[in-house]
């Protein structure tokens, strides 16, 4: 069971920073659709569960050591190259969003100007990428279970202490500008851009699992955990939509409402997850282009960090609204490819048995 939990934990750790920690992403794709957004969260939960199981299982069947092998196997050589580069440059896009998110977090909690906060986060992320990246990521990733517990408790508090009925909140949600035109499309796009970030780690961990069942169960547990967290957090954010709709870090606001100390704890947790995700995505982006551990790699980290910081000046809310929906549409290609690849290989296995 320990190996399954390792796969599940790694999957959750990668996705949480990019798509959950601040709560802004959930507002965009679910909460702004009101009650129907909660139905969309259920759809996304089912998709996360299936894709986690499928990607880890495919990685194990192919004994994958990188996402490239899995992507080419399910997409073919030509489409596989496109999806491979899609994943690579999505890593850079997520890094930019995280740099902006770190600045927005420090501004909301401590009043530090967003520009100064983004500079601090950029320097920290680049320094970690140039040094002991794996050890730091493991250390920060260890707070993922704490984030899940705290975020779930905060969300349940928001639901139980809401001042308006869900009917009134649903009406308020209809006045917000959602990330897509329809709640079901939002559910698919949310999963598709997140799975682009999660595919590399799932493929690699699935490939290293001792057998297919371990890989599949690990991916399934990770997907189910993400789905449950997403649903609970979305319900909590909808319960406080009247006060958090315009905030860059809505979950932090609700935590501070409960207690200033809890707000500080939540701030530190979100900051750790932002740094963890930014380090992981920047490292993945660079290692696809340059050999890791070399002088060129370190120079590339500094240059990419500077470019990423420049791009982050657009602002966290704007970036989430622009970058994530775009990569969500592109990530649909990967979702369809995984589904087709899973079905084909399942049929092939049945034929082989017969």
Automatic annotation (TrEMBL):
InterPro entries: YkvI-like (IPR038728)
Signal sequence extent: none
Segments crossing the lipid bilayer: 33-58, 85-106, 112-131, 138-159, 183-205, 217-241, 261-287, 299-320, 326-343
UniProt keyword annotations, A-Z: Membrane, Transmembrane, Transmembrane helix
Protein name stated in the entry: Membrane protein YkvI
Organism: Pseudomonas xantholysinigenes
């Amino acid at each position: 069971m320990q190996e399954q939990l390792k796969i599940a934990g790694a999957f959750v750790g990668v996705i949480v920073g990019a798509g959950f920690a601040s709560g802004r992403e959930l507002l965009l794709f679910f909460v702004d659709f009101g009650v129907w957004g909660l139905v969309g969260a259920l759809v996304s939960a089912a998709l996360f569960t299936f894709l986690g199981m499928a990607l880890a299982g495919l990685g194990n069947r192919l004994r994958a050591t990188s996402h490239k092998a899995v992507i080419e196997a399910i997409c073919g050589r030509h489409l596989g190259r496109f999806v491979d580069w899609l994943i690579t440059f999505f890593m850079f896009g997520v890094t930019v969003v995280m740099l902006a998110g770190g600045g927005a977090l420090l501004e909301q909690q401590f009043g530090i100007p967003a520009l100064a906060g983004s500079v601090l986060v950029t320097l920290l992320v680049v320094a970690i990428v140039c040094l002991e990246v794996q050890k730091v990521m493991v250390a920060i990733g260890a707070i993922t279970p704490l984030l899940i517990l705290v975020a779930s408790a905060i969300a349940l508090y928001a639901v139980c202490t809401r001042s308006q009925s869900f009917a009134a909140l649903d009406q308020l949600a209809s006045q917000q500008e959602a990330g897509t035109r329809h709640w079901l499309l939002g559910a698919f796009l949310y999963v598709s851009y997140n799975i682009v970030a999660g595919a590399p780690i799932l493929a690699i961990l699935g490939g290293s699992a001792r057998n297919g069942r371990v890989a599949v169960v690990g991916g399934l547990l990770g997907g189910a955990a993400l789905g449950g967290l997403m649903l609970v957090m979305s319900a909590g954010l909808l319960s406080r939509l009247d006060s958090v709709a315009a905030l860059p870090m809505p979950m932090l606001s609700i935590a501070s409402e409960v207690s200033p100390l809890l707000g500080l704890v939540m701030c530190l947790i979100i900051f750790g997850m932002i740094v963890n995700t930014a380090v992981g995505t920047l490292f993945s982006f660079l290692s696809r282009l340059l050999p890791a551990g070399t002088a060129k790699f370190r120079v590339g980290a500094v240059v990419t960090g500077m470019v990423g910081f420049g791009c982050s000046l657009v602002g966290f809310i704007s970036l989430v609204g622009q970058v994530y929906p775009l990569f969500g549409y592109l990530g649909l290609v990967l979702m369809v490819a995984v589904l087709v690849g899973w079905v084909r290989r399942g049929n092939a296995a049945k034929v082989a048995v017969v």
